[in-house]
Amino acid sequence: MLLTAETQDLQEQLSTLSSFIGNTPLFPITRAYSKPGVKIYAKLEWQQLGGSVKARPAFRIIQDAVKSGQLQPGQSLLDASSGNTAIAYAAIGAAIQIPVTICLPENASEERKTLLKAFGANIVYTSRFGSTDEAQEIAKQLYSDYPDRYFYADQYGNQSNWQAHYHTTANEIFRQTKGEITHFVAGLGTTGTFTGTSRKLKELNPEIELISLQPDAAMHGLEGWKHLETARVPKIYDATIANQNLAIDTYEAFDLIQKVAQKEGLLISPSAAANLAGAIKVADSIEEGVIVTVFPDNAEKYAEVLKSLF
Ligand code: PMP
Known about the structure:
The chain is of the alpha/beta class. Helices cover about 45% and strands about 15% of the residues. It is built from 10 helices and 10 strands. A 6-stranded mixed beta sheet has the order 1-2-10-7-8-9. Strands 5-4-3-6 form a 4-stranded parallel beta sheet, sandwiched between helices. Helix 3 links the parallel strand 3 and strand 4. The termini are far apart. 4'-deoxy-4'-aminopyridoxal-5'-phosphate binds near residues 84, 269 and 297. Keywords: Pyridoxal phosphate, Transferase. Its EC number is 2.5.1.47. It is an enzyme of class 2 (transferase). This is Cysteine synthase.
């Protein structure tokens, strides 16, 4: 493909940005939970552009689309997201001057709306009590009405989403644990984190146990869990990967937010707490091992949750 000067320029800007994506620290959990013979580590995924794990897939989706010509200079990136992916697109979009349009359920938290506006994203509100599924439908419709205007990023169906984790997160974890990881634990949203990281880890060492998490029904609808709440199975999900699927008690997870703040000095989000609850369940069930999970974001965007806890 012959690249225009504008596309080349975009690719150069993306390559400069790439050093602010991924390469997150691996934090040892030692006081919020401890058991002789077992170690738990968490990737601090908020230490990237846009403040969450979603920097990785958002960046790769954009980079792959620019490379393949699907995202042309002058077009706007379009997707549905109730949270972190939208913020990641908006931050990266601002950094490389690509306009970003997000279909967002109107009941998304004020913090999220403010962050998106701060990064200059264009927000299309979907219905007041709408789900992420409905926001996806609206994004698809908008794309089919104006295919020339938009690049539809489709995080739930875009292979670049899981590939981001396959090419970055998994290798980082393997290197940071010096190959000693025995278990990988992660919650499912679009499923990109679990699917991509797991696929690569399995190639690096087929013995690694892969555990996916779902929150129980009790707290669905509460801010902080919405990303895990899609009625549909994402297109990129592969049910054959997990060795185990665990349900997480969301009340237990909420207790962990407090414990981790006061014993580890980290203010983690509800989904990070759910991942830690999963890692602890696994730790309780084994005698020896190195368990790795991810903390997708910190608690700064969850004012309601923090107020109810502290
Ligand atoms: N936790 C948070 C806070 C998230 O924003 C997301 C993704 N939307 C997830 C967990 C789940 O990650 P994934 O989409 O890769 O399954």
